[in-house]
Design goal:
Blueprint lengths: L1 H28 L4 H6 L5 H11 L5 H13 L13 H36 L4 H15 L2 H15 L11 H30 L3 H8 L4 H38 L5 H10 L3 H29 L7
Helix pairs in contact: 1-12, 5-6, 5-8, 5-10, 6-8, 7-8, 7-10, 8-10, 10-11, 10-12, 11-12
């Protein structure tokens, strides 16, 4: 297991380097001049040129990129062009909020998705199964930002049950977490149903029922454990998707997390901040994938991680 973890961590190095290169090139292709945006509309050309020089934007692109990589290996993500503060400090100030939002959204995804999937699989082609299928299709179809606006209007503006925006208490977390987790719950529900239907047809399940074991024990102790492998894969991928989805949801609900920081930095063409924020989000996603692989082995000892 330790060898596998070390091997996977080493494999992340070229992945992270590829991410930094792609983001760097994309930011260079975005229309506009970072120095002009930061200097303001009324700034003189001399002021803009001096700002470009101080930010290192007048150097060749390959020099800028390799300087960034050199600092990255030294633990330096650079300095924000907007706030002139270390990038890592601003990211660490907002990252816990984004991780908290993604964590609660993942809990909602797992609880709602697996519960609906199990109910649907236990009684296939029944009214409950068809109802879960319809709701799942609607959940997958609705854009998260649209769902967030609808929930905000109903539960915050009309009913006034939850605050409109912010991230200060549990009541602030309900609508953003549900909005972000609803789409993932629909996907998990469909995957759980498919996996459970495949498992409950196995011989050992029929043997367990023939022995007189109670139905709920057969479902939760025997069938569910063996049906979790593909579900774990989907949940792991959904967590990565949730990290990306926070960019929209944090903007809709005015949450000062990493996603909103990325949006603000892109608007200001703050290249060091955009690169650093996306790099950290990518690292979190890689760590989650590693954790998912370890869970594979926990639920199925026959899986070879080497």
């Amino acid at each position: 297991m330790l060898t596998f973890i070390i091997k996977r961590l080493l494999q992340t190095i070229p992945v992270i380097l590829g991410i930094t290169l792609v983001i760097f090139l994309i930011m260079q292709m975005v229309p506009g001049d970072s120095a002009q945006v930061l200097a303001g509309e009324g700034a003189s050309q001399e002021t803009i040129e001096n700002l470009r020089h101080s930010l290192g934007l007048d150097r060749p692109l390959h020099v800028q990129y390799f300087d960034y990589i050199r600092g990255l290996f030294q633990g330096d993500l650079g300095v924000s062009a907007k706030s002139h503060q270390p990038v890592i400090d601003e990211i660490l100030a907002r990252l816990p909020i984004t991780i908290e939002l993604a964590f609660y959204s993942t809990l909602i995804t797992i609880i709602l998705g697996m519960t609906a999937g199990i109910i649907s699989a236990v009684r296939p082609y029944s009214l409950s199964d068809m109802s879960v299928t319809v709701v799942a299709l609607l959940g997958i179809s609705f854009p998260s930002f649209w769902l967030g606006l609808i929930l905000m209007y109903i539960f915050s503006v009309e009913l006034q049950w939850f605050p409109v925006a912010g991230w200060e208490s549990i009541s602030h977390m309900v609508l953003p977490a549900f909005t972000l987790g609803a789409g993932g719950a629909a996907i998990v529900a469909r995957m759980t149903r498919s996996s459970m239907l495949e498992v409950v047809r196995q011989d050992y399940i029929r043997t367990a029922r023939a022995k007189g074991i109670k139905s709920y024990l057969v479902i939760y102790k025997h069938a569910l454990r063996n049906a979790l492998i593909p579900v774990i894969t989907v949940v792991g991928l959904q967590f990565g998707a949730l990290l990306g989805g926070t960019v929209l949801i944090e903007s809709v609900f005015a949450i000062n997390g990493l996603g909103r920081l990325i949006v603000e930095s892109i608007r200001m063409r703050d290249i060091p901040m955009v690169q650093g924020a996306i790099l950290v989000a990518s690292l979190v996603f890689v760590i989650v994938n590693l954790f998912v692989d370890i869970l594979y082995r926990f639920f199925n000892r026959r899986i070879d991680l080497n």
